[in-house]
Design a protein that fits this description.
The protein is built from 12 helices and 9 strands. By secondary structure, it is an alpha/beta fold. The chain folds into 2 domains: 158 residues, P-loop containing nucleotide triphosphate hydrolases (Rossmann fold, 3-Layer(aba) Sandwich); 124 residues, no CATH class. The protein has a 5-stranded parallel β-sheet with strand order 2-3-1-4-5, sandwiched between helices. Strands 7-8-6-9 form a 4-stranded parallel β-sheet. Helix 1 packs across helix 6, helix 4 packs across helix 5 and helix 9 packs across helix 10. The longest helix is centred in the last third of the chain and has 21 residues. It is globular. The two termini are 29 Å apart. The N terminus and C terminus are likely disordered.
Length: 308
């Protein structure tokens, strides 16, 4: 069996996976799974020591760093600054893995295990869960890979980790498909960008306005535009041609963005269709809908619905 010890996309780069997410979402399970896959695992290392670790002698194996709110110097700002610093280092190939989970499921897990939430101590875990999800919202927005563990058992999560980070995946590029609103500016780090504003807009249909591009009726409305089918066909043909070329160049992560006016309907529907096509073609695909995530984060925890 080939060991999962590739240094990274640039050959000499040190591969680093930052693993984070809300308490109870499965971070410890994920860290242990990475250790079983051959990663050098360090959990809750103080932020100030991480650059010093990577400035030292090269580590022969890929590194996984577990980070959560129990870190001595944890804050969302500090973690984003660390991510930016590591991203700028040419000798480091960094990926941020965020383990997500619905709020009600996190509360249920804390109730079953009778564990205290790290942000609330002896109080009800609901308050701590809500506070932590709000605290981590900007971190989730920066993640290259988001795994929702709400409906996963620990065994399922280990299998998902093997799919993303196991030996068979070590040489396969991760494709992140993002939707966004042009009104809020371009997302950082896009490798390709496509404008979906030429498609007919569900916003002007009263019964569709409150829905988003994941809703079947919205997707059907957009697909009814006579330009949609040829656009999607040519786009997917282009991507199937280009992605292997990026792999040949040593790229480990590619970000494709789809934009529209509000980032709610057309860009979301196209991103969903493209992600589905690429996944069926065998690519590892992660989906992000920036404006939908912002809207969900703005809701109260009991409305949002959004182990260790």
């Amino acid at each position: 069996m080939r060991e999962a010890s590739q240094d990274g996309p640039a050959g000499g780069s040190q591969r680093v996976i930052l693993v984070t997410g809300p308490s109870g979402a499965g971070r410890s399970t994920a860290i242990h799974a990475l250790e079983d896959l051959g990663f050098e695992v360090i959990d809750n290392l103080p932020f100030s020591l991480i650059p010093r670790l990577l400035d030292g002698p090269p580590i022969s194996r890929p590194v996984a760093l577990g980070i959560d709110v129990r870190n001595r110097d944890f804050s969302a700002t500090a973690l984003i600054e660390l991510i930016d610093r590591l991203t700028r280092l040419p000798e480091v190939a960094m990926e941020l893995l965020y383990l997500d989970c619905r709020a009600e499921e996190l509360i249920r897990r804390f109730g079953e295990t009778r564990r205290r939430h790290p942000l609330t101590g002896a109080d009800s875990p609901a308050e701590g869960v809500a506070a932590e999800l709000d605290l981590l919202a900007p971190i989730r927005a920066r993640a290259e890979i988001v795994i929702d563990t709400s409906d996963l058992s620990p065994h399922d999560l280990k299998a998902e980790m093997a799919r993303w980070f196991g030996p068979d995946a070590a040489q396969q590029m991760v494709v992140s498909v993002h939707s966004f609103s042009y009104k809020r500016g371009l997302p950082r780090g896009l490798d390709m960008m496509f404008d979906c504003r030429f498609l007919r807009n569900p916003h002007w249909e009263r019964h569709l306005r409150a829905l988003d591009g994941r809703a079947p009726e919205v997707a059907a409305y957009i697909a009814g535009d006579e330009r949609f089918a040829p656009f999607l066909e040519k786009l997917c043909d282009l991507l199937r041609m280009l992605l292997p070329a990026h792999v040949a160049e040593g790229k480990s992560h590619l970000v494709i963005g789809f934009g529209c006016t509000g980032g709610q309907h057309r860009s979301v529907a196209v991103a969903e269709q493209v992600a589905k096509d690429l996944a069926e073609a065998g690519w590892r695909v992660s989906k992000r809908h920036r404006e939908l995530e912002r809207r969900a984060a703005a809701l109260p925890a009991d409305v949002r619905g959004d182990w260790t």
